[in-house]
Write a structure and sequence with these properties.
Shape: elongated
Radius of gyration: 21 Å
Strand order of the largest sheet: 21-22-1-23
Bound molecules: ligand EPZ
Helix content: 25-40%
Oligomer: single chain
């Protein structure tokens, strides 16, 4: 196991390029088995979740090869529709494989998906939608058995704009007979990226980015070479790190409109934000002011994946902040670790009440999930003295070379084997 050792209190200055979006690349990898032709996804991030999805595809019989950051999938010889529990337990995005496997084989067997421990994370919306498309589903001993004679297009209203369920429906209906209409769809940029990827393969999907997506089933899908969108959550993480530490950082690659609400909140803190094409420049000097209230919401609301990071930011701002987590039941598990560093935060259910303190002090803290771990690193960068962040396996799932990128901005951070 590794840990980060961080000497806090240093400004961040310079520029950083963000990776391709983890939450786009993962559904694209799932979509790669929709065709027997070759698929190449360019500039994939070197993160554990991508390696795990590659392993899942290999387990199905696909050939997966990396050339630098580009990954090529040749699933002509894919023959299995079963994914082992060991792999599906590793990550949430294994659940998207249901849609792809059903389109490819009309059968799928997966264990309940894993992913960050941030809430119950049921998959009822996924399964109810697949049933509407004609899939018979039985759940037994922790496994989900799906099969269908054929996939028939349907109208699918969904109660909550679930990102994964929206993506699963798209993957299961691209070659279904007839038209599928998703009403109440998630509107995240990663959904638009999946639509563009599928249409580049010859699919007929439209409406992604709105709450109604229409998929006209087609007979065949071809190969594709595709460059995914950049990671808006990674971009936000570096912007918040600079806000907390002070300094001037240019974050390159992410579309500013995809981090829109965060930029508004950072200006509210007192940061200067300048936008030029896909470059977002932030300047942070002196003590910032707390955001009065931040509520996480589905896109285009404030992203839940930046909730932990802005809570760390507010813990060293002047005043008080109310952070409300509306998407996941237990996404404040990192707070006790922040409190070890001197943060004054009280959590009641889905609300964290933050009283800003003048400064944090170094401590040894343990990451419990991906974004909570990123928040602890941000707090360590700002804390006076030395901090350790343990259990980096969570952070490695979603950030490629976090240490190297922060060091490039002037942080004093080492990765040590223990
Ligand atoms: C995706 O997870 C992302 N993961 C998450 O990012 C992100 O936090 C989340 O969307 C919300 O934006 C990937 O894309 C791989 P949801 P997903 O289905 O699809 C409830 C990160 O840090 N729900 O939109 O699992 C669910 O319990 C990760 O990169 C049901 O009730 O999220 C939650 O309360 C963490 N039934 C809410 O919807 C269902 O069938 C949002 O979940 C499905 C979801």
């Amino acid at each position: 196991m590794d840990k980060f050792v961080v000497e806090g209190g240093r400004r961040l200055d310079g520029s950083v390029n963000v990776q391709s979006a983890k939450n786009s690349v993962l559904p694209l990898l799932a979509a790669s088995i929709l065709t027997e032709r070759r698929v190449t996804i360019r500039e994939t991030p070197a993160i554990a979740d991508v390696s795990c999805m590659a392993q899942i595809l290999r387990e199905l019989g696909a050939e997966v090869s990396f050339r630098g950051d580009d990954v090529t999938i040749d699933s002509a010889n894919a023959c299995s529709h079963r994914i082992s529990s060991a792999l599906t337990k590793e990550l949430r995005s294994s659940v998207f494989m249901l849609g792809s496997l059903l389109t490819r084989f009309h059968r799928a067997v997966i264990a309940y998906p894993g992913g960050c421990d941030i809430g119950l994370r049921p998959i009822d919306i996924h399964l109810n939608a697949l049933k509407r498309l004609g899939v018979d589903i039985t759940e037994r001993d922790g496994y989900i058995f799906c099969e269908c004679e054929r996939l028939r297009g349907a109208e699918i209203p969904i109660d909550f704009p679930s990102v994964g369920a929206t993506e699963n429906i798209m993957l299961a209906s691209v070659k279904a007979e007839g038209r599928t209409l998703v009403q109440g769809a998630a509107k995240e940029p990663e959904i638009v990226d999946l639509q563009n990827f599928l249409n580049a393969m010859g699919a007929r999907v439209r409406g992604a980015g709105t709450d109604v997506i229409e998929i006209e089933g087609v007979k065949t899908l071809g190969g594709v070479e595709y460059l995914p969108i950049k990671d808006r959550i990674e971009a936000g993480t570096y912007l918040i790190a600079c806000a907390v530490c002070g300094g001037e950082v240019e974050v390159c690659g992410a579309k500013p409109e995809n981090v829109g609400l965060l930029l508004h909140k950072l200006r509210e803190n007192g940061c200067k934000i300048h936008i030029k094409n896909d470059k977002i420049r932030i300047a942070s000097y002196g003590r910032l002011k707390c955001n009065r209230r931040i509520e996480t919401m589905p896109f285009p609301g404030f992203p839940t994946d930046l909730q932990a990071q802005v809570t760390a930011l507010n813990s060293v701002c002047e005043g008080c902040a109310l952070i409300v987590e509306n998407l996941f039941e237990t996404r404040f598990k990192y707070v006790p670790e922040l409190q070890k560093m001197g943060a004054d935060i009280e959590v009641k259910g889905r609300t964290a009440f933050v009283r800003g303190v003048k400064g944090l002090h170094g401590a040894s803290v343990v990451a419990g999930d991906l974004r909570g771990g990123a928040a602890l690193v941000i707090a360590a960068l700002a804390a006076e003295g030395t901090s350790e962040v343990l259990d980096l396996s969570h952070i490695d799932r979603g950030y490629s070379d976090l240490r190297g990128k922060l060091k490039g901005l002037g942080a004093e951070i080492k990765r040590v084997r223990i």
